[in-house]
Amino acid sequence: MLDMSIKEKTFTFWVISILLTLFLMIYLRPILLPFVAGAAIAYLLDPIVTMLKRAGIPRAVGALTILIIFAILILLLLVTVAPFLVRELKDFAVGLPAHMENLRGLIGGYYKDWFGTELTEIELGFEEALRRFADSSSLKLGSFLRHLWDGSLALVNMIALFVVTPVVAFYLLMDWPKLIAKMDSWVPRKHVETVRGLANQIDRTLNGFMRGQVTVCLLLAAFYAIGLVTIGLKHGFLIGVTAGLLSFIPYVGSMVGLLLAGGMALSQYWPELLPIGMVLGVFVAGQLIEGNVLQPKIVGDQVNLHPVWLIFALFVFGYLMGFVGMLVAVPLAATIGVLVRFALGQYLQSDIYK
């Protein structure tokens, strides 16, 4: 009876702790962005700082050096790539109606040849849906920007992102081993090995996904962008980068990129089949390279995050916490996945199941 009481108290304690943590994250989400970003940067860069520490460089010096190099690389990326992407996005939005008109004309011609009727009803319905979507998107974007700049925390958040985030990342990098050791000391000694095993599984999952998948996404973005630009596809750079960055969700990036690039290729090149086939070939080659080279060599088999679960986590945490929720969705999804697999394993070995 005493043993059951202890188990019930332990279970109640952890449930309350998790719910309280989620409540605080949701309640404090307007000010969490610089801290979440700083923690993510520290986690990504910690292996490099640890390697420098083993080489004899003091951890504080290594952390400061790596952060400066990281900041310079991000700044160079923003200065060189961001303006071009913004210009591409603007040109894409301006040229989208003409491309849609070309596709409607192409599809409508074949539709009439095959079925003997015009595409009028579908076309009108599509135009109405597109108009409503554009109006809704414009209203939502305008409302978002208005709240962003009119909000009392807007300037504070902007300053915090560029000032507080590096400070948070530096101190976390400098004290990372101490923080891990301190949290390890809080774990009940009876369960310390189990908790350490779960923590290692979570770390391997995050390491494979955050470090490995980020690298894969950047390489795919470069591959798709260079391939499409080389072919001469309009807005190929924007489409390629978008497809590459969305590849952190398996198959989603390639499918979105293929649909965008395929539609653009039909509008631009039809009836020339060779360039259209070359555009499709870029994505086929990208998938082959990702599946046979990048994923096995860089990510490995430690991720164990099902695409459906990842998409669900992004939607849920994005809905609950906005942009901050999307940043923490992957770590939380990985953590929940490891804990659920552990609980399922315990259940399958218990008398309840047997």
Q: Enumerate the spans where pLDDT stays under 50 for 5 or more consecutive residues.
A: 121-125, 137-141, 148-153
Distance between the termini: 22 Å
Structural class: mainly alpha
Helical residue percent band: over 70%
Overall 3D shape: globular
Largest β sheet strand count, sense and barrel closure: none
Order of helices and strands: HHHHHHHHHHH
Total of DSSP H or I helical runs spanning 4+ residues: 11
How large a portion of the residues is in β-strands, by DSSP E? under 5%
Helix-strand layout with pairing:
Elements: H1 2-27, H2 29-54, H3 59-80, H4 82-115, H5 120-150, H6 154-186, H7 192-231, H8 236-245, H9 252-269, H10 273-299, H11 307-348
Keywords:
354 residues, mainly alpha, single chain
Q: What is the gist of this entry?
A:
By secondary structure, the chain is mainly α. It is built from 11 helices and no strands.
Overview of the structural elements:
This protein is an all-alpha fold. The protein has a domain at 27-84 and 93-186. It has eleven helices and no strands. The chain has helices spanning 2-27, 29-54, 59-80, 82-115, 120-150, 154-186, 192-231, 236-245, 252-269, 273-299, 307-348. It is globular, with a radius of gyration of 25 Å. It starts with a helix and ends in a 6-residue tail after the last helix.
